[in-house]
Write a structure and sequence with these properties.
- 63% of the residues lie in helices and 0% in strands.
- It has twelve helices and no strands.
- With 299 residues, it is mainly alpha-helical.
- The two termini are 28 Å apart.
- The radius of gyration is 22 Å and the shape is globular.
- The protein folds into two domains: 138 residues, no CATH class; 134 residues, no CATH class.
- The longest helix has 36 residues.
Length: 299
C-alpha cells in the first residue's frame, strides 16, 4: 500500500465524478466500448455474486457511472462483501497489457490524479485508486500464513474439509501469483518453440540457424528461471491445498496440475513435454482458479 498522500489530490474531487475519471482514463489506454468497459471495471475484484449485481444494473445506470452523473456510493455497499483485493489485481492484470504501463504512468501524472508511479507499481496504484473510489479497504496487508517474499513459510495447516479465512487468503494470493507467472512462462515457451523450429529447419541458412541457436541458449536459461519460480510457488500452494482436495473438484484439479509441474512433466526440454498439453494445462489452471475464486467463500 502506498502512502496516503498518493491520492491527496484525487481525493479532493467530487465523489460522483471519481469513477468516471478513473474509467475514462483507463479506457483511453486499453480501449473497448463505453458500456462493456464500464461493466468490466465495476466488476473487477468481485466474486460471482458481486458480478451478478453489476450485470443487473440498467444500461442508463451504467452510462451515468461512465459520464460521472452518478457516483458509486450506493453501489459500493451492495458489492463490498464480494470484493477481494487480490482478485482486483488479477482482473486489472488481465485488462491491461504490460506495454501499456508507460502510457498509464503518464496519464496518472496529469489531472485529476497527479500521481507519480513506476511501471512496476501500476497495478498496485490502480488498485489503490479503485479501492479509494469504492471505499473498500485494501486487505493486501492482512497477516497471511506465509510472508510476502519468495521465502514463503506455510504455518501448520489443520487437515480438515473446510478452509479457514487465512487459508482462503493464502490460496487466492498464491493462485494469483501463479496465474501471472504461468502467463510469463507461456510467453518464454513460445519464443523457445519458434527458435527451435528455425534451428531444426534445414532449409534455413546455416548462419541464421547458428545465430538463433545462441539466442535459444538465453531463452532456455530464462525459461528455467521462470519454471523454477512457478514450481516453487506451486509447492507452497500444495502445502495448503493438498489436504483440501475433497472440498471441490477445482481444488483437486489445481493440485493435479501442480504435481505435474513439480514433476517437470511440462518442462520444455523434457521427454514428456507436449506443446498442446502445455497450453491446455495453463487453460485448465485459469479455468479452475476462476471457479475457486468464485466459490471459495462458500467452502
Amino acid at each position: 500500500m502506498k502512502d496516503k498522500e498518493t491520492l491527496a489530490h484525487f481525493a479532493k474531487i467530487k465523489d460522483k465524478e471519481k469513477f468516471a475519471h478513473y474509467a475514462q482514463m483507463l479506457n483511453s489506454v486499453v480501449g473497448g466500448t463505453e458500456t462493456e468497459f464500464t461493466i468490466n471495471l465495476l466488476s473487477a475484484g468481485l466474486y460471482e455474486q458481486g458480478r451478478s449485481i453489476i450485470n443487473d444494473c440498467t444500461h442508463d445506470r451504467i452510462q451515468k457511472y461512465w459520464r460521472g452523473e452518478r457516483g458509486v456510493s450506493r453501489l459500493a455497499p451492495e458489492i463490498k462483501n464480494y470484493f477481494n483485493h487480490f482478485i482486483l489485481i488479477d482482473d486489472l492484470d488481465e485488462m491491461i497489457n504490460k506495454s501499456q504501463y508507460p502510457i498509464i504512468c503518464k496519464k496518472l501524472m496529469k489531472e485529476p490524479f497527479l500521481i507519480t508511479t513506476g511501471e512496476s507499481d501500476v497495478l498496485a496504484t490502480l488498485a489503490e485508486i479503485h479501492e479509494h473510489i469504492f471505499k473498500f479497504s485494501d486487505n493486501s496487508e492482512i497477516e497471511l500464513p506465509y510472508d510476502n517474499n519468495t521465502n514463503i513459510t506455510i504455518k501448520d495447516i489443520i487437515d480438515t474439509y473446510t478452509l479457514k479465512d487465512d487459508e482462503k487468503r493464502s490460496i487466492i494470493k498464491l493462485c494469483g501469483i501463479l496465474k501471472r507467472d504461468l502467463k510469463e512462462l507461456n510467453k518464454i515457451t513460445i519464443t523457445v518453440w519458434s527458435q527451435q523450429e528455425i534451428i531444426n529447419n534445414d532449409d534455413n541458412e546455416k548462419e541464421w540457424r547458428d545465430n538463433v541457436e545462441k539466442l535459444l541458449v538465453e531463452s532456455l536459461n530464462n525459461y528455467e528461471v521462470q519454471y523454477d519460480k512457478v514450481k516453487a510457488t506451486y509447492e507452497k500452494l500444495l502445502k495448503v491445498l493438498n489436504s483440501k482436495r475433497p472440498i471441490h473438484e477445482c481444488i483437486n484439479k489445481l493440485c493435479s496440475i501442480g504435481e505435474e509441474i513439480i514433476s517437470e512433466k511440462h518442462f520444455v526440454t523434457s521427454n514428456t513435454f507436449d506443446k498442446t498439453v502445455f497450453q491446455d494445462m495453463i487453460k485448465d489452471f485459469n479455468t479452475n482458479y476462476k471457479i475457486l475464486a468464485e466459490k471459495i467463500d462458500s467452502f
